[in-house]
Design brief:
With 51 residues, this protein is mainly alpha-helical. It is built from one helix and no strands. It starts with a helix and ends with a helix.
């Protein structure tokens, strides 16, 4: 009985951790994309002001 409860809890924590890490990867990727777009905007403004 104890082994079955322990295995169920362990499986639940594993699945929750798996989905949490997948969500975290998407968040980090999104932040990287936003920073990259911000860098492009700054670069474009610098080019316009240089002329």
């Amino acid at each position: 009985m104890f082994k079955r409860i322990f295995a169920t809890l362990l499986t639940g924590f594993f699945i929750a951790g798996l989905f949490g890490s997948i969500a975290g990867c998407n968040t980090v990727e999104g932040i990287g994309t936003d920073i990259q777009q911000g860098g492009r905007a700054i670069k474009d403004e610098a080019r316009e002001n240089k002329r």
